[in-house]
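so the lab meeting is tmrw and i was supposed to have these ready like two days ago... anyway. pasting both below. for each one the top line is the aa sequence and the line under it is the structure tokens. i havent really looked at them closely yet so no promises
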Amino acid sequence: PSSVSAAFQEYLQHLGLQDFPCGFGSWNKSRLHGRRSPWAEPAGLEEALPPGEETPEALLELLRDQHSPWALPPDCSPQDRLLREVAALAPELLHGSRVFQAVKSLRILDKGVEEVDEGLLRFQQLEELILSANSISRVTSAHLPQTLKVLELCCNAVDDLQDLCARPPPMLQHLGLGYNRLCGPSQEKHLTVDFWPNLVSLDLSFNSLTDLLELVSQLSTLQNLHILVLQGNPLALIPTYRGFLVDSLPKLSILDDIHIWPEEREQFHGLARQPELIRSEARVVVSIGEMNGLPNPEAFQQLEVGSEGPVITYSYYVTYEF
């Protein structure tokens, strides 16, 4: 599927919310006609059921028993279980478009999704959207439900935040953009309180951000930011990188998955007022130990005076890839 909506439809088919023991059918047809509520019968009165029908308890047992052919795999998400059980107990709640109202968390991982389409607006209660490991390069904020609190786009191809920041979800608390293609210095301007007033956690790891000063200038406006991940960017190679961030963002609690303790903050106190220590360069020292099996070039330079034999020279080079 190339869109989120198409991937969701595929997900619903996989869950089988309309198939036994979920949905409506001969196993609960009296409920379909409104003659019986799933909670109206006390447990144990199975003889009161019409022939061929199952109690809600029996349907749940088919879903929960790990030996049942209708059981979900042990590693399925809590939402998968919830939707399946609701579809068994009260299938009318998930009938037709009502299923969009029941979904608060949507996880579509590694499905080749390229487009965040406007079909997402049907999820009027959606709080968490996880779209990691797809092929998304642009996210149009007008297609995102305004109820979102978590947006995870890790391992995609996002290289520009302008469309995402046109009308972003105002209540968003976590934005995950790790392992994408964001490059400085044009993207930092989109990471301010004007766009993300309630942001608590931000993951920008493993992109191509280089301007630490400009990035910190924008991030300092995020008054609720407590968790920040920047490792894997070129700017993280700067020797004073961690100390400068710790001192520049006093409300930060965790940087690159490492907790910031008061002792560390005291150690780096005052570093934010010394931007001259931040250089846009890095030095890498490589030491090569002993190499065997390579002729020493110097041994072939000691030729006798007047020698007329052919001269054989050896030279070597080493390449480093970053």
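ok protien two:
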Amino acid sequence: MHQSKLDFFCKLGYGKQDICKVLENLGQEALEDDVLKELIRMGSKPQDLESQAQPSLLKLVARGSHSASPRSKWLGEDESDSSNHLRPIVIDGSNVAMSHGNKEIFSCWGIQLAVDWFQKRGHTYIKVFVPLWRKEPPRQDSPIADQHILEDLEKQSILVYTPSRKVKGKRVVCYDDRYIVKVAYEKDGVIVSNDHYRDLQNENPEWKWFIEQRLLMYSFVSNRFMPPDDPLGRHGPTLNNFLSKQPVLPEPKWQPCPYDKKCTYGNKCKFYHPERPHQAQLSVADELRAKIKVPLSLGKEEEQCKHSL
């Protein structure tokens, strides 16, 4: 229990000495919330985890891989991606474009809106996957709007085409959803799509968990890309924490004691007392005893002085 709590708060960036000191004061069975409150009260601040980590640990390793060797760079990956505190973004281009086009037109402008939204947040790794046949001239049964955007995004190494070809006049298309999930899983990133990928969830149990926890759905409101503020529901992480590699815990809210200065619970009171922020909380009875002892001790000293004279 002690080791698990130590590891937990170390991951949050607190020093081992501060954590051990708090655990000694509160006891090994103390709740994590109480330990966090005590660390904040002590003035302990989380340190930068990236500066503490060894250079070899900063390299991303694919989930499920037992090899410690670094993976080869691909899809335009650069060294700055590993040091960024924001998660990599993998966008289902077809899903986003069709959603913006009301499921009637493949709207490339919708993809650009999504890319712009993540770039403004500071994400450095953004990949959009689109089938290669979308490069072909638009047809009546598959209309495309603003097709030039795909070319622009490809030049920026943001858009990636999944393979497709024609065999005897028939189009053979590779399953682009598998590319999307696989890359997002290996990069430990976020999938941007309104698709649930149920077939891929049944195909791989590890992918099932990843899709459930890392799928970011969205809406378009008047040409505005809008993901939800609570991607995993009301009781889940905020959007900022969902998109961050190092989630930020909310500041603890101190509820004032309803009894105010009349409280007799002393240091056992779990509520906030503004009148005693940096001193040990004593009960009223203990405070009275402490006040009575002072004049008594002073009286004894005076008597001793008289006898000595």
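from a quick look at the 2nd one: The radius of gyration is 30 Å. The longest helix spans residues 284-308. will dig more after coffe
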